[in-house]
Amino acid sequence: MAQQKISLTRYLVEQQRADGLIPGQLRLLLEVVARACKSISMAVNKGDLGGVLGSADSENVQGEVQKKLDIIANEVLIEANEWGGHLAAMASEEMDSIYVVPNRYPQGEYLLLFDPLDGSSNIDVNVSIGTIFSVLKKPDDHPGVHEADFLQAGAKQVAAGYCIYGPQTTLVLTVGHGVAMFTLDREQGSFVLTKENIQIPADTKEFSVNMSNMRHWDEPVKRYIDECLAGTEGPRGKDFNMRWIASMVTDVHRILMRGGIFMYPWDKREPGKPGKLRLMYEANPMSWLVEQAGGAATNGKERILDLQPTKLHERVSVVLGSKNEVERVTRYHDPL
Ligand code: P6P
Questions:
Q1: Residue from 211, 212, 217, 248 whose mutation best tests the ligand 1 pocket (most atoms within 8 A of CB)
Q2: Are residues 19 and 108 in the same domain?
Q3: How many domains does the chain have?
Q4: With pLDDT > 70 as the criterion, what percentage of the chain qualifies?
Q5: What is the span of the domain harbouring residue 176?
Q6: 2 lies in a domain?
Q7: Model confidence over 50-63: pLDDT tens digits?
Q8: Single pTM value for the model
């Protein structure tokens, strides 16, 4: 008999029965986010036919030129999530400040953070991009909701995931009980469970970094990459392969599927910035997913999920993936 297809809804209900990690309001939130990702996938797939490519002639809080699809994806996520009663507020890479659920709707107990379309530089050249999301509980020790309520360490997340818009549209998520993957069945219009308990191999022969920045890196990172490049003749005694898609969501997905180490380290081009990637809605959700799959995630020195944020859009240096490789990079940063 053909294996029964398990929908996202059924998976979430059964997980709730098994370990109580997905209360009704959180399940509703995750299903709404998944539906929003389906809509974004349809818009992305239209490309030029939908008039959605190219620049929106505006800049986001990061000072980056926004693509039309960045704004579309952001609006889809806001409109899908604001009325359901499960959220108190949202935060997005594309918005300067938090978006508090309007008074006309009931307020819920969760906070949703997202990068609505990660990898925007790839949109116009038809390379995979994706949505990254993170869910926190709103502190219940005071009325209302403020930006400070979002400034929680990544270890406080109650759900995290991403959706890749590539050859397949796949949703990958965790609620703290391992990592599961769902593939969009376009005939049914629903996400179907295709992998669960995803595990990242502890060792790898594949590194993922933007090599054009090499001359700007700190010594420990240069040492690690030089040793990978030295291959069988060098101290690692094995040859390495390199991949850099410039969509964090896609590079991390590859690592979840077959192992590897991903790095976007601090570099001296902008010494005042700790890194390029954003802590709250890129590094934290990806780090939790990687840890839940048996990998590791640091800023080169400390566990990313332990970092206490001070600003909503703060940046961080990221080293994540196969546990033994991440630990090696950490050792190289440790002067002792
Ligand atoms: P670079 C995409 O803009 C992004 O934020 C990440 O998804 C990606 O890993 C990184 O920037 C790519 O940066 O400097 O290689 O273009």
A1: 248
A2: yes
A3: 2
A4: 99
A5: 8-195
A6: no
A7: 877 778 888 877 77
A8: 0.96
Residues 6+ apart with CB under 8 A from 251: 208, 243, 244, 245, 262
Tell me the per-residue pLDDT of 124-160, one tens digit each, with 9 for 90 and over.
Answer: 899 999 999 999 999 999 999 999 999 999 999 999 9
Strand stretches in the chain, DSSP E: 55-59, 65-67, 87-92, 99-100, 110-118, 129-137, 159-165, 169-174, 180-185, 190-195, 206-208, 241-242, 261-264, 277-278, 296-298, 315-316, 318-321
Which of 195, 217, 244 is a domain's end point? Answer: 195
CATH number reported for the structural domain that contains residue 253 in this entry: 3.40.190.80
Final residue of a structural domain among 162, 195, 228: 195
- Would you say the CB of residue 300 lies under 6 angstroms from ligand 1? no
- Does one domain contain both 215 and 286? yes
Do 18 and 155 lie in a common domain?
yes
Residue bearing the CA closest to ligand 1, atom 12:
246
Task: Find, among 333, 319, 240, the residue nearest to 287 by Cα.
Answer: 319
pLDDT at position 64: 78
Helix, strand, coil shares of the chain, percent, nearest 5, are 40, 25, 40
The phi and psi torsions of 236 (rounded to 5 degrees) equal -80, -20
